[in-house]
Amino acid sequence: MSNRVTASCITLLLVVTTCAALAEDLEVLHCYSGTGRPFSHGPVALASWESKGILTSNHPRKILDGAVVQCEGIQKGAGSARTGDGLCKIVDQDGDAIIASMPYVGFDYDVKFVEGTGKWQGVTGSLRSTRTVRSTDGKNGIPGTFQGCRLERGQFTLPK
User: Fold this and answer.
1) Residue 119 forms beta bridges with which residues?
2) What is this structure's pTM?
3) Which residues are CB-neighbours of 95 under 8 A, at least 6 positions away?
4) Series of mean pLDDT values for 10-residue runs along the chain (160 residues)
5) CA distance linking residue 100 with residue 67, whole number of Å
6) Where are the beta strands (DSSP E) in the chain?
7) DSSP for residue 8
8) Rounded-to-integer distance, Cα 93 and Cα 78, Å
9) Residue 138 DSSP code
């Protein structure tokens, strides 16, 4: 009896291991340009924003390399005390998309994969997004805009 239980457990472990999707590391550089639209000038700054950008992938298979990104969100406050929430649509070279959410406080935050289409259907995971460079408010070359790049590192999983 003990041998049958052991064999059953090993078989179940092999099936679960084989069927389970493996998390894969991902690192991308996300460069973007956008605009902010204040809608309150009271004691607390409130604004909506939008940005468009492109990804450069450091993955050996160049996953998401050249993907374009469109994000929109809202923000309360400014600088390192700011809080906000955004949604992004990441579209790869084949036209398949990932929808990501990014609630944030301050300058660094997690980008969580919510859903996907095509090859990205069922995607899960997140990337830690760290600001690497950003234009200085009020001193960039194009009034009313912002530009920057973020290094985003994490993992994603696709169902088998």
Assistant:
1) none
2) 0.83
3) 118
4) 47 42 94 92 89 96 97 92 96 98 95 98 98 82 88 95
5) 14
6) 24-40, 46-57, 68-76, 83-91, 97-101, 104-105, 109-116, 124-134, 145-157
7) H
8) 34
9) T
